[in-house]
TrEMBL record:
Keyword set includes Repeat: yes
Matches recorded under InterPro entries: Rhodanese-like_dom, Rhodanese-like_dom_sf, Thiosulfate_sulfurtransferase
The protein's name in its UniProt record: Thiosulfate/3-mercaptopyruvate sulfurtransferase
Record keyword Disulfide bond present: no
PROSITE patterns per UniProt: RHODANESE_3
Segments of skewed composition (Basic and acidic residues): 120-131
Span of domain Rhodanese: 17-126, 157-261
Organism whose genome encodes this protein: Halostagnicola kamekurae
Keyword tags: Pyruvate, Repeat, Transferase
Domain of life: Archaea
GO molecular function terms listed in the Swiss-Prot or TrEMBL record: transferase activity
Location of the region described as Disordered in the Swiss-Prot/TrEMBL record: 120-142
Any coiled-coil regions, as ranges: none
Length: 264
């Protein structure tokens, strides 16, 4: 699995004293303070980088607003960012996607979440102070970005793309994009370890749903949170032709897009 997208707790623990490796905890501030956190982590709560009033697609906060968050956290453009939450990585993966769209090249998801880390490794309630940085974002171009808009989705429906719905069964059966296959984002997580399943098992699981590296893949859910996790996992497995539908089903329904319903 490509550690440019997902890194192990072992790797992270070995780099806790590396000043160029910055840990970002995206849980609520009270969790960060009261429950504890990974040593050296800085808190950037999930709500701070989700802006439903933004002019950006979906709920992306905008490049300048996101850069302000990184500046306040003392993160430099060349830093390696490792992100975690306590929800199997789904909120952390959203940070990874956002940072990459806005041009931060080295940002990775911690394999496992805070609870997985806390079982075997040191945590702290002490908060390290960081000097604010100067961060000039360089968002990816439309050609470089994985984001796909409404018109792009309409065009992909006419091609041999596979649409992947990462929501729960009842949501999928109520309404979905035409021809979409359901792949619950949590299927890639081992319930016992709270970490990702072994790579070979993940590849077999994805293949059973027709999600293979040779296909054009379009991911969607309701508001693009859950597909962030699936996107990061697919990239870590070497998948490249992935469209990330930021507007997801919320935008599609608002635009009166065609829908299917019923059982799988």
């Amino acid at each position: 699995m490509d550690d440019a997208y997902v890194v192990s707790p072992e790797w992270t623990e070995a780099h806790l004293e590396d000043p160029s490796v910055r840990l970002v905890d995206v849980r609520d501030a009270w969790e960060f303070d009261a429950i504890g956190h990974v040593p050296g982590a800085v808190n950037v709560p999930f709500d701070s980088y989700r802006d439903e009033d933004s002019d950006e697609p979906g709920t992306l906060p905008g490049a300048t607003a996101f850069a302000d968050l990184l500046e306040a956290a003392g993160i430099e453009p060349d830093d390696t960012i490792v992100v975690y939450d306590d929800m199997h990585g789904v909120f952390a993966a959203r940070f990874v996607l956002t940072a990459r769209v806005y041009g931060h090249e080295d940002v990775r998801l911690l394999d496992g979440d805070f609870s997985a880390w806390n079982r075997e490794r040191e945590t702290t309630s002490d908060e390290r102070e960081f000097e604010p940085s100067s961060y000039d974002p360089e968002p990816l171009s439309a050609e470089e970005s994985p984001l796909i808009d409404l018109e792009g989705v309409e065009a992909a429906l006419e091609r041999d793309a596979i649409f992947v719905d990462t929501r729960e069964r009842d949501e999928y059966e109520e309404a979905r994009l035409p021809g979409a296959v359901r792949f619950d984002w949590r299927e890639v997580v081992d319930d016992e370890t709270r970490r990702l399943k072994p790579e070979a098992e993940l590849e077999e699981l994805l293949a059973e749903h027709g999600i293979t590296p040779d296909r054009e893949i379009i991911l969607y859910c309701n508001t693009a949170r859950r597909i962030s996790h699936t996107y990061v996992v697919l990239r870590a497995l070497g998948y490249e032709n992935i469209g990330f539908y930021e507007g997801s089903l919320t935008e599609w329904i608002a635009a009166d897009g065609a829908l299917e319903s019923g059982s799988e």
